[in-house]
Amino acid sequence: MMPQPPASNGPVLRDIHLPPAPSWWPLAPGWWLLAALLLLMLAAATWSWRRHRLLLKQRRLLLDELERLAACHVRDGDDAALAAALHQLLRRVARRHDDAATKQRGASWRTTLARVPVAAPVLDRLMVLEQVIYRPQAEFDAPTTLAAARSWLQAAAKPRAWKSAAMEPGHV
């Protein structure tokens, strides 16, 4: 038996049609946000890497200069020249973090040096430089002073190592 055609007294119905698949472009707002975050993270990582490389280069240059001073001292044996050059190097590095470092003497200079976390004997050895540079016949323990300067410079080359001047006792 044959199926009978539908009655023609009602509307003609068509099959269900699905809407077209969504396009991949333009992207949804969430993808734009994710892309922006990735670009921001990439920029921050690049900046951090370049800053780290610059700090490493500066530290290497400082320590290379210290080694050149030590080599000149071994060659010449001039304690006064070594003391003056070491003192000048320390002041140049300290000036990066404290503008007044070039004018400080005595206790205020020691306070500036102490903003870098090093042991007290290192500070004592570096303070000897301030007295030795003004003597015509300067004699001091050069190897120990060079080691103290190396220790201080390695710590001072890290910007985060410096304590804030406001944290120092007696700071106004």
TrEMBL record:
Organism of this sequence: Rhodanobacter lycopersici
Lineage top rank: taxon: Bacteria
Upper lineage: Bacteria, Pseudomonadati, Pseudomonadota, Gammaproteobacteria, Lysobacterales
Protein name: DUF4381 family protein
Segments traversing the membrane: 30-49
Keywords associated with the record: Membrane, Transmembrane, Transmembrane helix
Cited InterPro entries: DUF4381
